[in-house]
Design brief:
heterodimer; A: 156 residues; Ubiquitin-like (UB roll); DNA polymerase, domain 1; elongated; B: Aldehyde Oxidoreductase, domain 3; Aldehyde Oxidoreductase, domain 4; 3 domains; 7-stranded mixed sheet; 30 strands; globular
Chain lengths: 156, 777
Amino acid sequence: MLDQLIHLKVNGTLHTVAVPPHRTLLEVLREQLGYTGTKRACRVGDCGACTVIIDGKAVLSCLTLAVEVQEKEILTIEALGDGDRPDTLQQSFVDCGAVQCGFCTPGMVMSAKALLDENPHPDREEVRRAIAGNLCRCTGYAKIVEAIEDAATRLS
Amino acid sequence: MSEYAVLGKRLPRVDGPVKAAGTARFTDDLSLPGMLYGKILRSPHAHARIVRIDTTRAENHPGVRAVIVGEDFGDYRYGLRADTRDEYPLARGKVRYLGEEVAAVAAVDEETALEALNLIQVEYEVLSAVTDPEEALREGAPQLHDDKPGNISVHMKTSFGDVDDAFRQADYIREDRFYSQSVLHGFLEPNAALALWEAPNRITIWASKQSPYFLYRNLSNCFNVPLSNVRLIQPYIGGGFGGKNGGYPVDFCAVMLSKKTGRPVKIVLTMEEVLSSHRRRHPMIVRLKTGVKKDGTILAHDCRIIADGGAGTGVGPSTIANAFYFLNLPYVVPNVRYEAFRVYTNRPISVAQRGNGIQQIRYAADVQLEMIAHDLGLDPVQIRQKNAVYTGYRTASGMNIHSCGLQETITEAVKAAEWETHYRPWQEKEKEPLGRIATGVGIACNSFQSGARLTGHNCCTAVIKVHEDGTASLLTGSTDSGQGSETVLAMIVAEVLGTRLEDVFVPQTDSTVTPVDPGSFGSRVSSTAGNAVLIAAQDARSQLLPVAAELLKAAPEDIEFRDRKVLVRGAPDRVLRFRDLTRQTVAWGSGTSIIGQGSWGQTVPPMNFETGEGDASGAYSFGTQAAWVEVDTQTGKVTVPRMVVAHDLGFALNPLAVEGQHEGSIAGGVGHTIYEHCVEENGQNLTPNLTAYGLPTVYDLPEEMVSLSIETIDPVGAFGAKESGEGTQVSTIPAIVNAIHNAIGVWITDLPVTPEKVLKALRDRKAQDRATEGGQP
């Protein structure tokens, strides 16, 4: 299949890339644009590790075709703080012990960010619902829920 | 109040920020110039002879650079011991499970590699398969390995005390059958390897390994390369839980494809490949006969196990031995008999998974103890207190307990669970009608090894380089697969050198740089590597001490290292910054390097896989769990809203990390008990995705988890620490199953506790009640 030349706006930067129409946003982000913070795990929408934010909504990049999201605002984990200067939400994940192996963490953080951007004062149930599509084998989720609530408090 | 400046504090993990930022690099995040992508062709049959493989069309496909098959690896086989090497990098002669690796391709991209797989023509002669371990033991069953008659992979038979006499003395005897299903490791990062072969004989591999030095040896043997030329660099690991210990086909194939092509090759499995054909926990049938006195005192266990080993042996001997060892703990069992068969079946290979054989046996033993308490009208807490082992106890088989806070864990768990308020015996509840939502509480105890004492190289080594600016690098081969050991080991360095956690850097394992290490399994890192780090840090400190004494004009024994300062006891005016001491030491005379080194192994002889006599570890943890369950009696759905853990872990080196371990263990245990299940048909996994398999989501796990640490300061472990990473998962299952009985009066002896099983058990109980009533005129 012929490649298409598309424009993707990722973390405020416009990228022009040639992609076959069946290529997922996850693949383009990771392999063509170098945004490897977005994790590739199940590839079929089960686990949430590839979550990014598109126009304010948490989206599974493994189920999104790159050609579909031109002219949209795409945010990846790299849009937040880096290892030296984590942002408030990331710092809450670290401080609350919500990170263990860390493989689910970027997707978890992005789901949490989408929630807090839209609803800065979520209740417990809203927090749980926001990460219900993000799997984690290490933590049992309690500390992740705590981290998101902690971030909500710190941000307000 | 802790005597320590760093240890015992709730310090966030050192790799937290890079993981939260997404800049921590896992294997799949790495790429090299000219890199090729590998894909693996898997068997569509559970058991078949490979008649012919034709790779010509695949090789000629544009973009394909190499195709490999089993013959490329010669006769190389791998396994835990010389007599258990029954695995091949790619199948030779026949395939023994559906999904077994048959061929591999390297191509310019993944799509091309996938296309090429479809062009490989394999002619199979399909053989009858056996996927049930009991059937596999029967005469005339299909045979998996020519040199292992009867499909027996491991057989262990042992006995201590006089079991027959004990049963004669017993007032009450129960015999039950329990089944624990196939459970997958459930890590989110699929197995992955990036390999680079450099002629004539150098291998560099980045692979997701919790125990990288197995693969280091495997690759040396497989490719006939000296160990000095095998460089295994460990990227961040996206969870292991026992499923990333050894070398696997993905690793061997990446190296072989790189050797064939002269290019770096990366292979990342799909989750479907992991769930369908990668390793998993041993399914086990446990037949347990227990004799007790009428006050509930245990007199004897007689246990027979049939473990489904799948098509290879893996670390199976340790699993079978572990099940025996922990038949003897955490309760006093004066007489014990055990016979286990680990059986080959045409299923993916069973290996260790968080708990390695101990869950299955403790599920049976602790639920059966609850059954006995119920039958005899005894209190579930008291029967455990009565049978609990204690400091100084030696099991009938010769395991020595040097520290034990089991009684305290029972007391604390019961208190935190408000047991007195919530517990009413089923005999009392039974008289009332069952509502739509029935609630119950359950309790169970556990014990676990602080570092499995295996044969062969079993010690950990640490090297600490103190830099002239007062910072330090800790080189260790003990990997952190997410449990937080990197942080805990760095804390030990900071404690001894009197610096801060942020002053210690722990690079990832790299086999040409870091010392050889057994690996992160059997809950060994904090206690075993911890001691090695402690010794190494003391060694480094002792190199700094004479210079400090000279500079401060003090006796070495009066010098203290604390909060980046060097102090003289009783002389507050004589102070030196630690970084000034390191700078001056490095420049002393014509200069020196400050390099501390320490090694520490287990204090006990190796586990005896034949008889199970003696210790399994130098130290044992103990714990108690209380579960609160809600059972929907109309749908059969069980939920666990609350769980309490009280764990004797010796000493909590980092309480925040400990809580994470306990909560993670609960998560794995709840999944094992209620949700996780591979639906299979003729050896094919019909649930090869995380949703169908049932990996728990946030809605499936307890919203409230209480984690209590009981500190007994063990004489063996580093700073008195014992394990906290696996023991809790051991008692999660029986605590929940016991709570279900307390809620609805049925015993679930077949995991997982699906709604169908709960409803059937409820129907059976009602039918039995009616029959009983009908029988009474």
